[in-house]
Write the structure tokens for this entry.
Amino acid sequence: MSIKENLNTIKETLPPQVTLVAVSKTKPISDLQEAYDAGQRVFGENKIQEMTQKWEVMPKDIQWHMIGHVQRNKVKYMAEFVSLIHGVDSFKLLKEINKQAIKHNRVIDCLLQMHIAEEDTKFGLDETELNEIITSEEFRQLENIKIVGLMGMATFTDYQEQIRREFKQLKSLYTSLEKEIETLSILSMGMSGDYQLAIEEGSNMVRIGSSIFGARNYK
Ligand SMILES: *Cc1c(COP(=O)(O)O)cnc(C)c1O
């Protein structure tokens, strides 16, 4: 199946409120262009340098999402153009994003990444850390970032009930946070292997890579 066919097959199954982020990390420009020509405008990358290189050559009406772990010293390279940063997992990082956003006279939308998986290899905040951030005075003073939602990754397992439980947990956190942060509108959860489940549990943004572009080769 072609990239276009894959995209269309997935889009047919997505409810209208769900945004599809096409995760193009490691893939060549020609693949991104094929997705673009099929109508895709939201792309997700997990390395700032790679995303920047792609942004430079691709059409300018693309929304670039940074979905990977963000190193603070690299925020400056994407501050000009990134449209959503999914992986914000510390206050220090938020402060750096704010600082770089000021330089470009813009407000950068961010998702706080929550740790919902069982594995401790996955990045993210726990509830205590989340509350520390959002209740701090310093946080309120950051005017060039906007928290628009939460992101999470479920445990990599075949055990569906566990994945579902983790998504439920993130959704319920999101629901309670909505009362405190008015700007929330995005719950980013679900990848190729689990996006249907994620949508059933309330996701409105899915990050899909291999089901669109094929398996990645990390060589
Ligand atoms: C790579 C990646 C995805 C996409 O994974 P697939 O299984 O290929 O769909 C989604 N989210 C994050 C954070 C990723 O790093």
